[in-house]
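Following up on my earlier message about pyridoxal-5'-phosphate. Here are the inputs again, as you asked, copied directly from the submission form:
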Amino acid sequence: MFGANVIAVPAKDHGHDLAAMLKAITARTRIVFVANPNNPTGTLAPREEVIRFVNDVPDDVLLVMDEAYIEFLDDAVDLVPLIRLGARKNLILMRTFSKIYGLAGLRIGYGIADAELVSALEKIRQPFNINLLAQTAALAALDDDGHVRKTRSNNFGGLQFFEKAFRDLRLEFVPSSANFILVRVGEGERIFEAMQKQGVIVRPMGGYQLPEWIRISIGTPQENERCLGALKKSLTL
Ligand SMILES: *Cc1c(COP(=O)(O)O)cnc(C)c1O
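Thanks, got it. Here's what our run produced:
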């Protein structure tokens, strides 16, 4: 929309190549986006690599760390202290209530950044961009540790369920740190359509240059069973 020139850095083993991203930064680079854990791969960049990257991105480049899935991790890299200490004034952490909190329909999220950066964003923020009901729900959600714990544990169980099933089916998959898993089924689009006819919606990955893959979101144990049944049936059609 704003005529920016987008530079994409190729992934390595389905994950971010942070060293290559750093090398791709030039004097003309204004913003760098990193989603960690990443979507649609579910990959997690190693802790030391993230810390090095965050420290090495030049001070005059805005670094946006998209942490939409961070609450699903047991032991996430905590970048908040870098902001609190004023050590990284170019860093903004982006969070959402759409994922672990299950409030996608309320359209609410938040960012964590240095006060100076936040006031710059305030100048261009749309008025009334967040409604009161969404804010009330979001504040309540932040205190709902029980929900987060339960959802995280359901997610770990679901990931294990699908990983075992994929091994049994001899399907290649990408080990995930998010609430979905990427699996190589052959003809992604055909499997997507066949599963949809059985009432199960997965995401074909042609748009991400992965036409042989689908992305499956983790559900409840019953939903996971039903999804696997639909996948197995689709594979034999
Ligand atoms: C879901 C998601 C978001 C946030 O989505 P909203 O519903 O707009 O808050 C951000 N980044 C990634 C990578 C996501 O998958």
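One observation from looking it over: Residues 18-142 form a domain with the Aspartate Aminotransferase; domain 2 fold (CATH 3.40.640.10). Hope that helps, and feel free to reply on this thread.
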